[in-house]
Amino acid sequence: MIQGTMSSVGKSFLTAGLCRVFKQDGYRAAPFKSQNMSRFSHKTEDGLEMSRAQAVQAEAAGVMPSVLMNPILLKPESDTGSLVYVNGELRGHMKAAEYFNYKKKLVPEITRAFETLAAEHDIVVIEGAGSPAEINLKQDDIVNMGLAKLTGSPVLLVGDIDCGGVFAQIIGTLVLLDDDERARVKATVINKFRGDRELLRPGIAMLEERSGKPVAGVLPYLNVEIEEEDSLVRGGVQPKPAREGKFREAQYDLLASAIRENLDMKLIYEIMRCREL
Predict the structure, then answer these.
(1) Which of 24, 137, 218, 222 lies 20 to 30 angstroms, CA to CA, from 266?
(2) Which of 123, 104, 105, 101 is CA-nearest to residue 114?
(3) Could you give all domains of the chain from N- to C-terminal order, each with its CATH number?
(4) CA-to-CA distance for 200 and 158, rounded, in angstroms?
């Protein structure tokens, strides 16, 4: 499972890239995000709505998009309310507080979707939302550590160095997790790096020492044309749609190549074997 220190750290890109790597390695992979808040949706062949981000990840994996990959879609209409889609169908409009109390009723839908995907695929790459350390939202969590526990999944924690403070992001997140949640985090990833990697090396050593977690790699800031994840793109910029066909396929291959070059895939495969069955 891919979790992040905050929104826009690159969870969706990493999920798409890993889906592509696994496809190239001969596995049937699928993305999964239990709940996504996004203004940008995709209609499946049977007319159901899901997040565009999971549709893009499915394309990277070489499989057909399905609402099983995103059983809950929240389409914000204001700062305090959203349209709620469950399994691709509109359940209605809910205020934030109303949905916060309602969401635990959706756990059976999430479990069914995940278990169906897991039965049909070799690997399911789960993406979290925001940060697992949002302590005001941890009660009845269904998208970060709550979902990791539900699915028995180990976690890769991703931080964004481009916006600054990546060491505080990662260490602070780990400090705010409960002991059992912290134990689920098996490694960290630094994303969006620019500059001389040798200057970063002492920081990585200190991060590993203080966190007790290996750094699985440092991904550079990539100019890859893949659609942004959701409505929380920094600055409120509309995501730039990637072109179609062969161009999109080439972008997924570029992302997969960068992951192979910069992340320890042997470690990631070992971490995947830590899933609790």
Answers:
(1) 222
(2) 123
(3) 2-34+110-272 (3.40.50.300)
(4) 16
